[in-house]
Amino acid sequence: MTTTVNVAERVRGHTVTDASKPADRSHEVTSDLVEYVIVAVPDQDSLATVVPALAELVQTAKIRILDLVVLLRDDAGAVTVREFEAVESMAALRRVEGEVGGLLSEHDIALASIALRPGTAGIVLVTEDRWAEPLSAAARRAGGQIIAGERIPPPRVEGALADRSEDEQEGR
């Protein structure tokens, strides 16, 4: 299957604000805490369900959003890329503090779009995992840094947990 990605001119580094609290003016990013996540949902309107959880992660300082785009894959497989501000179901994120944009390239977006099935929508999210700042700082003090991380596929986790549960029930 050939993927066609229509990437409109992206706005680099635009600011969104959370009027409910003062802005954190720190523009420093802890580079070993940056990751990307792709969230897929059945359709564009379903993105609204994800927004409150994402906003909570930002407001509780667990993550900082560095870049975020919405991907829409039609039934024929073509992908349209939209900035989150242009998608009504993402409107609540406009009130979240941070400077968003400028990290994802067209190539990054094209690669991420491969994960979406035809007829679905998703977001590509680049975050700084602020919850891990103490670990990153400790590693740097020791002369190291966080160098990798990966999501473990749910079936593999579920299988390992089931095996562990069976071992516990059998008294091993």
What would a concise description of this structure say?
This protein has 172 residues and is an alpha+beta fold. The protein has helices spanning 47-59, 106-113, 133-141, 154-169, and strands at 5-7, 14-16, 34-41, 64-73, 79-83, 98-100, 121-128.
CA radius of gyration: 19 Å
General shape = globular
> Could you name the ranges where pLDDT drops below 50 across 5 or more consecutive residues?
11-25
Helix content: 25-40%
Number of helices: 4
Strand content: 15-25%
Give a count of the beta strands, DSSP E runs of length 2 or more: 7
Count of structural domains: 1
Structural class: alpha+beta
**Kindly state the mean pLDDT as a whole number?**
83
Main beta sheet: 5 strands, mixed
The strands making up the biggest β-sheet line up spatially as 1-5-4-7-3
Series of secondary-structure elements, N-terminal to C-terminal: EEEHEEEHEHH
Could you describe the 3D structure shown?
This protein has 172 residues and is an alpha+beta fold. It has one domain. 27% of the residues lie in helices and 23% in strands. The chain is built from four helices and seven strands; from the N terminus they run βββαβββαβαα. The chain has helices spanning 47-59, 106-113, 133-141, 154-169; strands at 5-7, 14-16, 34-41, 64-73, 79-83, 98-100, 121-128. The strands form two sheets. The protein has a five-stranded mixed beta sheet with strand order 1-5-4-7-3, with helices on both faces. A two-stranded antiparallel sheet has the order 2-6. Strand 4 (64-73) and strand 5 (79-83) form a beta hairpin. It is globular and about 55 Å long.
